[in-house]
Amino acid sequence: MKHTVRRSLPFALASLAAWFVLALPLPASAADASPYPARPVKLLVGAPAGSPPDTVARTFIEGLSPLLGQPVIVENRPGAGTMIAAESAARTRPDGYTLHLSTVANAINQTMMPRENFDFDTSFEHIARVGSGGSVLIVRADSAIQSLQDLTAQAKARPAALNYGSSGVGTSSHLAMELLKSRQGVDLTHVPYQNQQLVTDLLGGAIDVMFINTDAALPMIESGKVRALGVTTASRLESLPDVPTLAEQGLPDYEVTTWVGISAPAGLAPQVRDILEAAILKAAANPAFIEKQKFMGSRASPLPSDDFTRFVHDESAKWAAVIRNAGLKAQ
């Protein structure tokens, strides 16, 4: 009897150990052996809930989630000019389950707010651009400035006398004007704001001119409160077909877009990138998303991975040159 127990004990222990191993959760590498995606995907957004980037993200995932067959969950991480979310996303595991809503702010803040051991160009796989919008150069309706030529002539006649407002140092509206100033060889005085007082001051005459996002400009243009001098996109906007581009008015190659795209941490497996790229491009072509973009004064403008990667590189380089030429520092 004792002999039998001694012989059986090692087998019992081995069986118990095998059962215990099988009962443990699978390590990440084993779990990820399932075809992608096997669980919900997280999309980090570097702007607060209700902001334009957040709105784009939430409308976009309505079409993306069914294509992936998994929920795509927006997680807002505002702060540091969108760079907190970007840095957090770039440092996660490159498995396709954490994505980042990349925007023009990231390309700008690569230079304005550099982060240690982080490079927006190379820390991500830039999977696809989703959409883009433009800004409108506006003055109040009773302004003597009727066109870009008028603005340039007045600025040259009275250097630094005209004031322009922006939503803050280093923002797209600020840099759009810095780019215009350098191209036209004029000087205007910058007045940065961080609240809605900017529009009030433009209408009241404290500010002479400003760039503003299309969605915010449209109601004021339609109500006759402001005059649109030009748009910053390469071609005219469908929502403002009678407003010429700045390029049409003597500023060749002038283009400033407020774009959004989807990026993932560098090192993403090629097959996962291909799945994401195909789904993102298809979601960006969804008629429902296209209509929602139009409603916001933007347009669906998908770019595949290779083109989007080059676009991000060019945007980062363009804004780095503008920032350095203007001698700007983050505040």
What is the topological layout?
Layout: H1 2-23, H2 28-31, E1 41-45, H3 52-68, E2 72-76, H4 83-90, E3 98-103, H5 104-112, E4 124-140, H6 148-157, E5 163-166, H7 172-184, E6 189-192, H8 197-204, E7 209-213, H9 214-222, E8 226-231, E9 257-265, H10 270-284, H11 287-295, E10 298-303, H12 305-326
Parallel strand pairs: 1-2, 1-3, 5-6, 5-7
Antiparallel strand pairs: 3-9, 4-7, 4-8, 4-9, 4-10
Helix pairs in contact: 3-10, 3-11, 5-12, 7-12
How would you portray this structure in words?
The chain contains twelve helices and ten strands. The chain has 331 residues and is α/β, with parallel strands linked by helices. It folds into two domains: 39-133 and 257-326, Bordetella uptake gene, domain 1 (D-Maltodextrin-Binding Protein, domain 2, 3-Layer(aba) Sandwich), CATH 3.40.190; 134-231, D-Maltodextrin-Binding Protein, domain 2. Strand 5, helix 7 (172-184) and strand 6 form a beta-alpha-beta unit. Helix 3 packs across helix 10 (270-284) and helix 3 packs antiparallel against helix 11. The longest helix has 22 residues, at 2-23. The radius of gyration is 26 Å and the shape is globular. It starts with a helix and ends in a 5-residue tail after the last helix. Residues 1-31 have low confidence and may be disordered.
